Amino acid sequence: MTVDTLRLSAEEANRLVTDGEVSSDELYRAYLDAIGERDPELHAFLYVCENDPGAGIPIAIKDVIGTRGIPTTAGSKILESYIPVYDATVIANCRKRGLRVIGKTNTDEFAMGSSTENSAFGPSHNPWDPSRVPGGSGGGSAAAVSAGLAPWALGSDTGGSIKQPAALCGHVGLRPTYGTVSRYGVVAFASSLDQVGPVARNVRDCAFLYSVISGRDEHDSTTVDVPEVELPTAEDLKGLRIGVPKEMNGVDGIEPGVSAAVHKALELAESLGATVEECSLPRSVDYGVACYYVVSPAEASANLARYDGVRFGLRDDGADFREMVMKTRDAGFGDEPKRRIMVGTYALSSGYYDAYYRTAQKVRTVIKREHDELFERFDVLVSPTSPTVAFPIGAKIDDPVAMYMNDVLTIPSCMAGLPGLNIPCGLSEGLPVGLQLIGPQFGENTIFRAAHALEQAIGFDVVPERLR
Amino acid sequence: MTTAWEPVIGLEIHVQLKTETKMFCRCRNGFGGEPNSQTCPVCLAFPGALPVPNRRAIEETIKLGLALDCAIAERAVFHRKNYFYPDNPKAYQISQYDEPLCAGGHLDVPTGDGVTRIGITRAHLEEDAAKNVHVAASGRIHGATATLVDFNRCGTPLVEIVTEPDLHDAETAKRFLQLLRQTVVELGLSDAELEHGSMRFDVNVSVRPAGSDELRTRTELKNMNSFNFAAKGIEREIARQVRIYEEGGVVDQETLHFDPAHEESPPMRSKEEAQDYRYFPEPDLVPVEPGAELVERLRGEIVELPGGRITRIAETLSFYDADVLVTGGLDRLWVAVVDAGADPKDAANVLANQFVATGIDPGAVGAGELAKLVSARAEIPRAAFDEALAKVGEPDFSADPYLAQKVVADTAELDPIIERIIEANPGQAGQYRSGKHGLLGFFVGQVMKETGGSADPRVVNERVRALLG
């Protein structure tokens, strides 16, 4: 039996293996063949595993997630030679279910970016149009799932790195509630924001993978017990109260085609029985990005300080300890990590801490409260995931602030620690448009239910047109 | 110039907790081991590793805080303290900053002039650094040429105790340190062994004109590994600062590396190069919120501490005796022996002098039997007493056989022996009689030998003198 990886969901792939129609090895090889065929153009993978143990189906792993014995570079030269001695908890969880790592996917260096152009190993390409970015930082996982190089993948999301690439590549991605998925073994960018999450072709696969990776972990003291995950079957939205924050649907820079597709999806939601009402998140949208670009670089400046050449990774020798550390870090880090280390160090410095870091923490509390208040009235909040469709490679690389503004719609709920999910809701100029559903804390099941019903009604074909 | 100067001294003490495992990982916590054998991804700071706090270490820090009469925080926060150094693999130390576990306590230090109360600013929990082995001919940090790192120590739970600048002389500082050490040892938190580095301290010293309440520039003395060095270093630093001020100079804020072998303390770094540690709350950990129930349970586990015991015993004995008993770990036995009927002063003398020389564990001694021995001390031969004391720790020890031996003080019994010895040593007898009175001891010794130690030395002395005269 030949396997059409472009059209195969993880659920269906798993059924094929369970029923013995295809062996686990045959399936793995089918995906390796797809990688061999399409990855030279897409560069979704930084490393492909020729064979990984397990009796189940393959999974692609973003290269910030540590895999024992398999290189884990975080898209950085400073970790080019690094091979972890332990599996991240999410990897251990996947292995318990028989999942086999098929490869490590490209990412902006240390997950810092919105296009994968900050990868030290070159950008990934969007399967819908290889001249365009797949989004970032998890563009590699997104491109891999979109182009049928893996049935599903793990990503990590700090300010939108799962949701935004899912939007730009036209599939489903969940950033879970902070604390529901272990960060143990995941190369840290901004510890109070980083969350691992599933990247999938449909909402049910996404929900299933979330159930595999989530739960309290004794190695991560910020994790909590997680409500049991319900695989969604709903086809209507009766009783669902949808809030539409006007700032997130009217912010400068939202492309008309994006607005139109989101508007159509909202009409569809109403016809499925949901109530749709405008609401407001004024300060979250105004201050979210600024706040994020204080908190996340501050934490990053400490998290990236361990790359000093002493114990692992790149070392550039110097006359003494100080010189070795400086040369190693200069040679090993690209521009974006350097930029954020400097910004973050500044924000934490004596005399500036109150003005920057402490103020940002206060703003973060305001953002959280603003969201909490809305969830007293609504079950989910809806907006575009990204203000634009996939943009051409190179278009924003020289303008960091323009690149940062890409995440204006995903960042606020990340700052509030809330779950958010992207589903594709249509095309604009032939490229996918993503719809973002934000839920309350631990509201994943509600999001899955709503997203599944919408997904069925929208009937979006996740296979890129040029690959059909 | 006759200005009197008052020293102002504050202490920062680090104590390693002897928990089974390290502060934020499950590696064994223990001194020694092959270099880098007690390590894991967490304490080596591999990418993705996360800290998980050691519950036991938190409880023990609270216990110490309670022993020091500190307020225990309802919510304490771990912070990251950022700096690059090879012994600090994350390039930040997880420590506590403005929300420590314990704050605002004191330790009462008994002295000959009463109790001196030393304020405790705070006691907080952090992780120890790895051990840098600086390779140089002298073996000391100063002048080292290469560095090796052993991460076994990295992540050991470490309590930092900071005092108020309430100390004004080296002797009291030393007494404070000794008492604090004994307190943590008795609480069972730490071995607090200076030679293994499980207790370490830094001293901040400044001086000011006596009577003033200003705080002048202070210097920090680091790396002192004995209480006597600390006292010596403090005295040396006070003298140095006084000399500078009297010569019209200014004291620089700097860290001095104490080297007992040299008169000067070479500066390690001056504060112009001081680090900005960029403290911020550790996002990988949630705040510690010890409930009232836990705090009360821990409070219930604290028995009377050495400082209080010295003060209490000094009401009966001299301060000196009380101090010797408590710091020698003998006071509990003393109380039991006195309760069993011994004279307090006699019991203290026996314990602090003869008993301590036997090396017997005070916990193994039956107080009733020892009390009998102490009370009979003057009435039994010295040799019998010594023999009995050497066996007082044995499980079935009974004092009775020794008490049956009485000293011989009867002159009718002693005089013939003394006369026989004088006759046997005519030369010495002649010399004594011609004025060489130092020979008295010779004759007394002979008599004691002859009587197997059972003669009363006081009576023998008297009779030898009479019979030779």
If you had to describe this structure to a student in words, what would you say it looks like?
The complex is a heterodimer of chains A (468) and B (469). Chain A has helices at 10-18, 24-42, 89-96, 139-146, 163-169, 203-213, 246-250, 256-271, 282-303, 321-332, 335-348, 354-374, 400-404, 411-415, 444-458, and strands at 45-48, 58-62, 100-105, 152-157, 172-175, 195-200, 241-245, 275-279, 380-384, 420-428, 431-438. Chain A is α/β, with parallel strands linked by helices and 468 residues long. Chain A has a single domain (10-281, 368-467), classed as Alpha-Beta Complex (Amidase signature (AS) enzymes). Chain A starts with 9 loop residues before the first helix and ends in a 10-residue tail after the last helix. Chain B has three domains: 5-298, no CATH class; 328-403, no CATH class; 411-468, Orthogonal Bundle (Arc Repressor Mutant, subunit A). In chain B, strands 2-5-6-9-1-10-11-12-13 form a nine-stranded mixed beta sheet. Chain B has a three-stranded antiparallel beta sheet with strand order 4-3-14, with no helix packed on it. The relative contact order of chain B is 0.10. The model of chain B has no long low-confidence stretch (mean pLDDT 90). The A-B interface holds A 65-66, 72, 74, 79, 82, 84-86, 88, 183-188, 190-192, 218-222, 298-299, 301-302, 305-306, 308, 310-312, 321-322, 325, 345, 348-350, 353, 357 and B 41, 44-53, 80, 82, 84-86, 89-92, 147, 149, 276, 278-280, 283-286.
